[in-house]
Amino acid sequence: MTGSLELLDLASGMLTRQYVQRPGLWPRASALLVRQALEESLSGYWIVKGIGLEHCSTRAQLICLREYLREGDLASRVAHTWSALSRACHHHSYELPPTVEEIKSWMEPVRELHEVLIRR
Description:
There is one protein chain. The protein has about 120 residues and is an all-alpha fold. It is built from five helices and no strands. Helix 1 packs antiparallel against helix 2 (about 25-50), helix 2 (about 25-50) packs across helix 4 and helix 2 (about 25-50) packs parallel to helix 5 (about 100-120).
């Protein structure tokens, strides 16, 4: 699960740099790194639990997380974040890339999930 923190750090680093040559590319790349961090944390959690859910789809893992993770509304916020990140990672010609503020807001529940899972 430590790799998920590294991915979040890489995503944060992308947010602090200005990529003038590819202005629409770095936000999606950053969102992808955040989503990978979230998925890696989830997979690590299920491996530690030993119930085999790491082999299921991320959507199924997020549904099960609501039952196993008793941390207020964190599981719901993580599921919403994953959906938003998944949408942001795909380029649609009619949509703008995510903003720095959006990406930072998506990082918060991922970091919180990581911290909760590390404590367990």
